[in-house]
Design brief:
Strand order of the largest sheet: 3-4-6-9-8-7-11
Helix content: under 10%
Strand content: over 45%
Structural class: mainly beta
Distance between the termini: 71 Å
Number of helices: 2
Shape: elongated
Oligomer: single chain
Low-confidence stretches: none
C-alpha cells in the first residue's frame, strides 16, 4: 500500500466519496460515505450548536428524538402544532430548555436543505395527557418556505427577534365590509388607524382577539386600509 501522502488531493468533494475506517463490531475495515457520516451526525446531534436541538420526522422505528403531527410533505406554512419527544435525537432530555422558548420566535428547518423551514412563535408547550414522554407545541406562523418530508432530520432553535424598531403592520380590506378581521402577528395589542379608499379617516369599534389578531367593526361596509403600530 502506497504512503497516504502520495495519493492525490480530491478538491471536488461529493456525498458519495468514501473514507476508510474500522467498524467497532469486530474491528472490520470498511468504507464510509460522507453522506453516511453526515446523516449520523444529524441523527445523533454530534456536532453541537448552542440552542439547537435536532429531531427526526417520519424516521422508521424511532422511539425518541422525533417530532410528529403534520402529514408528510405538508407545507411548513400550514403547521400550527407539533408533538415533540422530551429527548432530542442525541438522546438528551431537553424539555426544560424548550420551555424557555415559549412566547418567543423559533425556527424548524431541514438540516440537509435549510430552504425548507418554518419560523413561528411558540405559543405553548404542554405535556401530552396520554404520554409523559411527549409534549404538544402550538405555533403561530411568522414566515415559512418549503415542505416537511419524512425520513429527514430537522433543527429546532430560538430565532432572533428583530428589535431595531417598533413593529407595525398594514392591512388592506379590498372588498367593502362592515367588519374587518385582521391577523397581524405583532405579538402585542397595537394602536389602529383606519382610512377608507379615499384616504379619509374612519372610526370603528376595536376588539382585540389576542396579541396577534383583532377585529374592527363599523356602522357600514367600505374598503380601505388599517395601519397598526
Amino acid at each position: 500500500m502506497a504512503r497516504i501522502s502520495s495519493y492525490p488531493i480530491d478538491t471536488d468533494i461529493v456525498g458519495q466519496d468514501k473514507l476508510l475506517g474500522s467498524d467497532t463490531a469486530g474491528l472490520i475495515t470498511k468504507n464510509y460515505t460522507l453522506d453516511g457520516i453526515s446523516g449520523w451526525m444529524n441523527a445523533t446531534g454530534s456536532v453541537a450548536i448552542a440552542g439547537q436541538n435536532n429531531y427526526g420526522f417520519g424516521i422508521p422505528g424511532a422511539t425518541e428524538g422525533f417530532i410528529s403531527g403534520p402529514a408528510p410533505n405538508a407545507q411548513f406554512s400550514s403547521i400550527t402544532a407539533l408533538t415533540f419527544t422530551k429527548t432530542s435525537s442525541a438522546g438528551n432530555d431537553v424539555i426544560n430548555y424548550l420551555t424557555t422558548l415559549v412566547g418567543r420566535p423559533v425556527i424548524l428547518a431541514r438540516l440537509k436543505n435549510l430552504n425548507n423551514f418554518g419560523v413561528y412563535r411558540l405559543n405553548s408547550l404542554i405535556v401530552d395527557a396520554g404520554d409523559a414522554n411527549l409534549y404538544n407545541a402550538a405555533f403561530t406562523l411568522i414566515t415559512a418556505n418549503g415542505i416537511i418530508t419524512s425520513d429527514e432530520y430537522y433543527g429546532f432553535a430560538a430565532y432572533p427577534e428583530v428589535t431595531s424598531g417598533d413593529k407595525n403592520f398594514v392591512f388592506t380590506q379590498g372588498t367593502p365590509a362592515s367588519t374587518w378581521t385582521i391577523t397581524h402577528n405583532l405579538n402585542k395589542f397595537p394602536s389602529v388607524s383606519v382610512v377608507n379608499s379615499a384616504n379619509e379617516v374612519v372610526y370603528g369599534n376595536i376588539d382585540y382577539t389576542n396579541v396577534n389578531s383583532l377585529t374592527v367593526t363599523f356602522s357600514g361596509g367600505f374598503s380601505g386600509k388599517a395601519y397598526l403600530n
